[in-house]
Amino acid sequence: MHEMSYAVRIADIALRAANENPAPAEGFAAGTSAPAEASAASLRILAVRVSCGEMLAIVPALLETAFRECVKGTIAEHAKLVVKTMPVLIRCASCGREIDPHGPDGYVARCPDCGSAALRIEHGREFVVNDIETEII
User: Fold this and answer.
1) What is the DSSP track for 44-82?
2) CATH code 3.40.50.2300 for 3-25+32-87+123-136
3) Cα–chain-centroid distance for residue 70?
4) Measured between alpha carbons, how far is 125 from 85 in angstroms, rounded to an integer?
5) 57 burial class (0-12, 13-18, 19+ CB within 10 angstroms)?
6) 52-98 pLDDT, tens per residue?
7) pTM higher than 0.70, yes or no?
């Protein structure tokens, strides 16, 4: 189950981001114009949104289960994991044609228009943590 390794990274990124960008404390530090010290313990992670390329073959339900295990006992314990699957997009480097591998051309070795073998996978291999939604508690 390779989803566990992705879940570990998601949890690590979300928790690190919350710790590095703690919730602002109310008011300012006494006698200064600088904000008072803040504490990450005053934050809760509500949601983490990720984009997974189709070629990674990630099963969202398995990723969710693995994520739940990774965030037990943390400020992300009840966070919603939102997974968006990014479809594969292939482009011909010679003529620029976009090739949908799920379309009538399917997975091809050459461009159906110009015959070039210079095909690039533009999307479908990415894995991105898009955003982390938090609330001050």
Assistant:
1) EEEEEEEEEEGGG---HHHHHHHHHHHTTTSTTTTPEEE
2) no
3) 15
4) 10
5) exposed
6) 999 999 999 999 999 999 999 999 999 999 999 999 999 999 999 99
7) yes
pLDDT digits (tens, 9 = 90+) for 12-41: 999 999 988 876 655 444 444 444 444 445
Residues 6+ apart with CB under 8 A from 48: 10, 14, 67, 76, 79, 80, 81, 82, 129, 131, 132, 133
In whole angstroms, what is the distance from residue 37 CA to residue 113 CA?
A: 61
Q: Are 90 and 99 in contact (CB under 8 A)?
A: yes
Residue extents of the structural domains in the chain:
3-25+32-87+123-136
> Residue 13, class by beta-carbon neighbours within 10 Å (0-12 exposed, 13-18 middle, 19+ buried)?
middle
Residue 20 CB-density burial (10 A; 0-12 exposed, 13-18 middle, 19+ buried):
exposed
pLDDT digits (tens, 9 = 90+) for 119-131: 999 999 999 999 9
